[in-house]
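HUMAN: I'm a chemist; might I ask for a sequence paired with its structure tokens?

ASSISTANT:
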Amino acid sequence: MKSLRYTFLTLVFVGLTLALSSWNDGERRVDSGPLPPVPDYADSSQWFMIDRGGEADLFYIISTETDDHMIGDDTCHFADTNDPALRKNMLREMVAVDSFYSGKLNYFSPYYRQLSMDSWTTPDKAFAIVPIALEDVMHSWDYYLKHLNQGRPFIIAGYSQGAIAVLDILKEMPDSVLSRLVAAYVIGFKVTQEDVDSNKNIKLAQDATDTGVLIGFNSVKSPESIIYFTENNVACINPVSWRTDTVPTPFVLYGRRQNDTLSVRCDTVSHHLIVDGITKHRPMPVIGKPGNYHNMELKFYYPYVRKNMADRVAAFMAKKKEE
């Protein structure tokens, strides 16, 4: 009898300990608010995918396409990947980027519980809870490697919030996977000197066809227009000339009604792209600044980036044949 009572009390104690541990973890995440269901990446509805039979893949992580919304009486700061309205916004970017960049590449883009745009108005809070979104992306990446990639070379790319996830994945990438990396495109977020110095996987691109490298850029009218999540950046390559010096390069901004000729150059002090020639531009809502072109990064350079992805894949495949 005493033995049964001891066993019962032990189970109760363990149960309470686990409950308190769980509660404490919830307390640490109290500012995250209610969370939507965790995506199941074995479910094809949690992906936008196109198999073109290509020799390489593009794995793309979308930017912030979600505002705060309500779950019951509480404000949710994360996308619900099953909500039709929220999915519509995310799908729009997935489709646009596929048309911008993929060419002959197979395309994989996961839905994830991305952090809302409203959250980024408070940087400390945003960076404290964004790991929830990044965990989803890491799970999608693991699923992609195990079930979708089939050993092919790949490009991984992300824009803004998606670029944070690219950095995380790149830092954790084992050599067995890194050997298939054509390039990583980190668009619209900073890469710091500490990132470069502390991780052997981060090698900044120097030209148009080096492989296994990180391509990073952020566009402004002048350094005074830099916004907080691209400060202290060191990754800057001109996505038209694929040079890292200060030589300006003309490029065409393709539009629905007219095509404008602009120019772009690297500023080797702020490590941002300086874009000249824009006459009209509406700053990004919520966290934008006049003269900051964060919301134009994909539109500015897409024909040049698409060609560059193809060129880097060709260079990668040529190296493999020589080995």
